[in-house]
């Protein structure tokens, strides 16, 4: 006899985007998993925290008790969006403009000056539907921002992420994406 495990959220996902949409928030999942205040010894790094998923992810990770480092290209917009999430000494906001490898390196250096461990990185930031342009490093903006800069960020933080991993809590790298790439297939003969 085969048993099938079902998600406690399967029913909540039955009616998406409209009346009856009761999908849980990230904060609700933290509560359901009994993680509130249970990650005080963990460090979390999140990109793209000036709107949407980044803000809600920051809210949920703060509720775990972890030390949370959030980033945004526009600090004023992030401060407004994050609001009271920024209160307390266990959450820190850094400037990170993924259109610049120098900004990535600078942000990593600032982070390393404040923390000697990293348990979770959530690469959430991204752009879409912007006019053609190039990053300060010469790459097409979508390619440079959504892919290359996040790759560089993860490579620079990977040693710290691996060193912080332990059998009782393996470090994690979470890459947030969407289906937007389907609207513009990749031309591998011309990445720009």
From TrEMBL:
Q: Which key words are in the record?
A: Oxidoreductase
Q: Say if the entry is tagged with keyword Ligase.
A: no
Q: Where is the composition biased (Basic and acidic residues)?
A: 10-23
Which stretches does the entry tag as region Disordered?
1-23
What Gene3D superfamilies does this protein map onto?
Answer: NAD(P)-binding Rossmann-like Domain
One family name in Pfam for this protein: adh_short
GO MF terms here are: oxidoreductase activity
Superkingdom of origin organism? Eukaryota
The record ties this protein, via InterPro entries, to:
NAD(P)-bd_dom_sf (IPR036291), SDR_fam (IPR002347)
Q: Which family does it belong to?
A: Belongs to the short-chain dehydrogenases/reductases (SDR) family.
Query: Under which name does UniProt file this protein?
Result: Oxidoreductase
């Amino acid at each position: 006899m085969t048993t099938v495990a079902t998600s406690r959220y399967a029913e909540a996902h039955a009616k998406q985007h409209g009346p009856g949409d009761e999908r849980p928030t990230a904060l609700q999942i933290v509560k359901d998993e009994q993680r509130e205040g249970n990650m005080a010894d963990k460090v979390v790094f999140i990109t793209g925290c000036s709107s949407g998923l980044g803000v809600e992810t920051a809210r949920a990770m703060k509720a775990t008790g972890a030390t949370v480092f959030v980033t945004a290209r526009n600090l004023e917009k992030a401060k407004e969006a994050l609001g009271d999430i920024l209160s307390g000494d266990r959450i820190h906001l850094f400037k990170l403009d993924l259109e610049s490898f120098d900004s990535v390196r600078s942000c990593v250096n600032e982070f390393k000056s404040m923390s000697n461990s990293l348990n979770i990185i959530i690469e959430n930031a991204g752009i879409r539907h912007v006019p053609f342009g190039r990053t300060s490093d010469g790459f097409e903006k979508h390619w440079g921002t959504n892919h290359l800069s996040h790759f560089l960020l993860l490579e620079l933080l990977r040693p710290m992420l691996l060193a912080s991993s332990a059998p009782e809590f393996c470090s994690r790298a979470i890459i947030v994406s969407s289906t937007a790439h389907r609207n513009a297939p990749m031309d591998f003969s011309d990445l720009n």
